[in-house]
Amino acid sequence: MSLRFVSDQSFNSVRVSRREWLRIGTLAGLGFGAAAANIVSHAVGKETVAGAETPIGFGRAKSVIVLLASGGQSQLETWDPKPNAPDGIRGEFSSIATSIPGVRFCEHMPRIAQAANLMTIVRSMSHDDLDHGSAIYLSLTGQFHPRKSSNFPPRPEDAPALGAILQRIRSPGQFPYSAIQLNGPVLIPDAPSPGQYGGFLGRKYDPLTIGDVTQPSIILDGLEPLPELPTMRQSARTSLLEAFDRMRKQADSDRSMRVMNDLYKQAHSLLESPRCRQAFDLSKESNAVRDRYGRFRSGQACLLARRLVEASVPLVTVFLNESIRGQDTAFGQTDAYGWDTHNDIFDSMKNHLLPRFDISVSALLEDLNQRGLLDSTLVICMGEFGRAPRVAPEPNFAGFSPGRKHWAAVYSIAMAGAGVARGHVVGSSDRIGGYPETTPISPGDVAATIFSSLGIDHSKHFTDATGRPIPIATGKPIGELYSAT
């Protein structure tokens, strides 16, 4: 198996002076310092762990898997159908019973419906950001973009992704990376979204991003040691790396060289460990298992996520679709489709999006459960927002039939594992799926839950390049997730 890095060349080519990096760090620190000063203490569920009062679910996860359905997955055609809503709102699909008594999902999610007793559905997610780039940024960082409802490219002053924060505050354990992103980078629709990089922490803290895992070469192309490579030659490579390190110190003013050196060291650490390399080798899985996950990009990425959890990677993010709206340029090619269904929503979801979503997500949950991994793995399936209640054509978008607009006022996500209640529902939306009927839950709360589940106090701080304290998360752990346990 050959391995290669995947990255956005236009973003990588940005070079910033030391003075500019200090200015950016200062501005970022000031912005986040203000956020820290305004953190409000929330009452959340508590339990006693080792004699100390701790948020429920704290430290229950060894790993977290985030499944991002980017593009704005419709809550009405997935987790929160409204079969009794008026015509023009309820949509074309029927609903089906799930393994949770009284809870119904979309008819095109039969496998997930059967696995529903493994998860909790959150039906009161809400925020007010209405464009993909800034809303994905919110989902992946837990922080609002400085320009809400925008599609800015990634910038050095961005907030770091949750995975970048994790790599900043926790040293890698058995695996040389604390955070890995699969089937990425996520595109909006053909350029990388902000929020999935190290931001003001620097490229050194970028999560390792892997592209199409169905290809024979998935990361670090050309760096895997050949079987015939003698130990002496491998040692020579290490000596060469040390020589480059000395050269780096002589050219310390060139930040891009320092970043490349850090990335190369991480790659070298990965290659030195056969156990790490083998974690990426999907050929180790049986044909039956690979078929169950689906022989397509999102399915095999979910399978690789399970293998990385077994290799002790703390945070794995799977982009279930590479682009929010790839169908515009690859109509009919299912792997290209994203959840941005302004038009053709029912055809796109029935024939392209939901069948693969149903196969892969159910396979991951069932596989983790059967292997005894679900109790120590938090799984979160979410989009950046939902879709509007009313079905209507949008003339500014391609398509032949009506769809739904962006909608962030209410949407749904699913969570499972690591102490999360099984067969449970948190929150509710109104009769047309337009607004929350119960207390809204934010992406910042999801971020706080992720860190808390990993045993990290979300109220603590880390420091930026200038030493300024930055809050790990500004939301609160979702205590209701554990209320039925």
Total beta strand runs? 16
Q: Portion of residues in helices?
A: 25-40%
* Mean residue pLDDT: 85
Strand percent estimate: 5-15%
pLDDT below 50 for ≥5 consecutive residues: which ranges?
Answer: 1-52, 219-229
Q: Would you identify the CATH architecture of the largest domain?
A: 3-Layer(aba) Sandwich
Q: What's the helix-strand series?
A: HHEEEEEHEHHEEHHHHHEHEEEEEHEE
Number of domains: 2
For the biggest sheet, the summary is:
8 strands, mixed
Structure description:
By secondary structure, the protein is an alpha/beta fold. Helices cover 31% and strands 13% of the residues. It has 2 domains: 9-218 and 291-482, 3-Layer(aba) Sandwich (Alkaline Phosphatase, subunit A); 220-279. The strands form 5 sheets. The protein has an 8-stranded mixed sheet with strand order 8-7-9-3-10-13-6-14, with helices on both faces. The two termini are 43 Å apart. Mean pLDDT is 85; it is low at 1-52 and 219-229.
